[in-house]
């Protein structure tokens, strides 16, 4: 094969075939590279895009980065169906097969240790959002009271004192919802972390960036045996019934990104182009 080697994950040998027509980064199909009883899942990518300098430039291009991350994740998701992969960080690239094998040789002990810990386990993500009502444009401006029904009387002007009172009430209501959501999240985390083998707390997401409704007050990942996943999902579903005004979002099952240590990071600080 010509071109550079893009590495998605390291795993143990698996018998089940990956889904037909699976394509990875740059549209290339993933292949298996065996070394000392471990498998590196790789594909060939063009040097013009993935050599150190062009890759560094591409990582500043949001559209390119998004497309690459989706293709990377597509391969990881396919692997998660048939085995327990140890995902590597986005844009892990080596010069050739020999470079990939050298990397595997150098990190073999760590790979085996992490794969032993993750075997048969998946990651579930849980987020809790405080849902707050959003004021209309005239209310935000503090100029008028909205009419109760369409076609009703014209909105009437609001005094400065009434506007300030209303703003205080809105702020207090939002704070009350936030505190209830935070307390609920604490109880939920205690329940889920006692069931899961491991858990990780992540920083809440910025709603302006994620475009999710409500304010994210809790963001966690849980490592769960695949065989126990149905019971874990039921625990989350039961909790949703006790959370009026609070939204619980469950995602997964994923490869165990949050539990792989230094091997998988969402976005590399530097392009990792090996020998």
Automatic annotation (TrEMBL):
Listed Pfam families: GvpL_GvpF (PF06386)
Chain positions covered by the region annotation Disordered: 135-164
Taxonomic classification: Bacteria, Bacillati, Actinomycetota, Actinomycetes, Kitasatosporales
Subcellular location: Gas vesicle
Lineage top rank: taxon: Bacteria
Family classification: Belongs to the gas vesicle GvpF/GvpL family.
GO terms (BP aspect): gas vesicle organization
GO cellular component: gas vesicle
Keywords: Gas vesicle
Species: Streptomyces regalis
Name of the protein described by the UniProt record: Gas vesicle protein
């Amino acid at each position: 094969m010509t071109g550079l080697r893009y590495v998605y994950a390291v795993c143990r040998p698996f018998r089940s075939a990956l889904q037909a027509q699976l394509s990875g980064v740059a549209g290339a199909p993933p292949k298996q590279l065996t070394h000392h009883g471990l498998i590196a899942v790789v594909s060939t990518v063009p040097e013009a895009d993935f050599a150190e300098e062009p890759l560094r430039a591409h990582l500043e291009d949001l559209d390119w980065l998004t497309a690459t991350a989706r293709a990377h994740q597509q391969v990881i998701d396919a692997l998660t169906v048939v085995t327990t992969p140890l995902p590597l960080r986005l844009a892990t690239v080596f010069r050739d097969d020999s470079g990939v094998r050298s990397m595997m040789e150098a990190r073999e002990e760590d790979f085996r240790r992490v794969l032993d810990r993750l075997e048969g386990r998946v990651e579930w993500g849980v987020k809790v959002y405080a849902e707050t009502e959003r004021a209309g444009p005239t209310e935000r401006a503090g100029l008028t009271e909205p009419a109760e029904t369409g076609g009703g009387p014209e909105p009437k002007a609001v005094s400065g004192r009434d506007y300030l009172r209303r703003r205080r009430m809105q702020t207090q209501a939002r704070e009350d919802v936030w505190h209830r959501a935070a307390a609920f999240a604490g109880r939920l985390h205690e329940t889920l972390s006692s069931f899961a083998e491991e858990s990780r707390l992540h920083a809440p997401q910025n709603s302006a960036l994620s475009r999710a409704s409500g304010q994210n007050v809790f963001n966690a990942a849980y490592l769960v045996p695949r065989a126990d996943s149905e019971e874990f999902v039921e625990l989350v579903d039961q909790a949703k019934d006790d959370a009026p005004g609070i939204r619980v979002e469950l995602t997964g099952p994923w490869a165990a990104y949050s539990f792989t240590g230094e091997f998988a990071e969402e976005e590399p600080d530097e392009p990792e182009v090996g020998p």
